Please model this.
Amino acid sequence: MKFKVGDKVVCRTNNLSGSMVSGAEYTVDETTPYIWDGYVCLVGHDGRQYRAENFDLVKEEKPMFNKGDNVIRTGCSLFHIVRGDTYIVEYFDPDTGRIALKGISGSSYAPAMFELAPEQPSKLTPHIHAKEIKAWADGATIQCYQNVLGNWGVGGDNPSWNPNFRYRVKPDDAETELLKAKVEIIQAELDALKAKL
Model:
């Protein structure tokens, strides 16, 4: 049997009862392959059987590209469409078989002038303050270094996460005291070195 259920077929000839029209499209509802080339039943024809030899399969052409596809211009440059540049398909026009490109109004192009762009790996880099942002999202208190005052202040309930600022998770009190002690020791060593100069 040359057809299967769901196929779109086109009738090649009119039949005597007038129920089939040459050139009209129908959908196969059922097939019976046991006689000659078989019979088909068509959707909307109440189980009537028609000889399969009187029909041809409709070849449904799928668009080369779909809306949102990234395509690369492969042919020579055309005005504002540059060879090698990547564009986004806005839509495929099934009547003309042409595509329109996002951001380029009033023009459509033959799909053969383009090819599907290869998938690009994600080039996302983490935010400079990603570690602190994650800690803040988990409930930690965030501090922002205040250059004018020369100390760490509380960043508030909703820090701006400015990439030019310094942020940290607020240390607990024991950690703060330990850091102060280390700073005092380093400062004393620094003062001693200055005195030797």
